[in-house]
Amino acid sequence: MKGLKLGVILVVLALVMVLVTACPPAGPQPVKLTVGIWPEANRPEEIKLHEGYKAAFEKAHPGSEVVPAPYTYAVNTFPAMAEAGTTPVLFQTWFTEPQKLIKAGYVRDITDILKKRGWFDAMNPAIKKNS
To answer: What would the mean pLDDT of 61-82 be, rounded to a whole number?
Structure first.
């Protein structure tokens, strides 16, 4: 009988441990936002401006970290970086590239979000036509 009780207690403890470790922690999770449109080192005034954006974002989103990751989009480097998961979260590309990147599964189509926020109608018509 004593062995059965011990066995039940061990099983219950094991289940509790599994449930505790399987559940994500409550509350917002920290976010690391790599910013590819960060200015290069030879542009100190622009860096200072971006550092202000960084500070404001991190203050508004506690636990988040903005990481400068200067990147200039290039068709010969982007696919390999995307496949390796090393592209910056935020980057700038040519206006002719979004559909290619969406089709390849590298980025998400945000047209509906832009329309919902009223930003789509404010975009340059030539950019909308070519992207």
So the answer is: 94
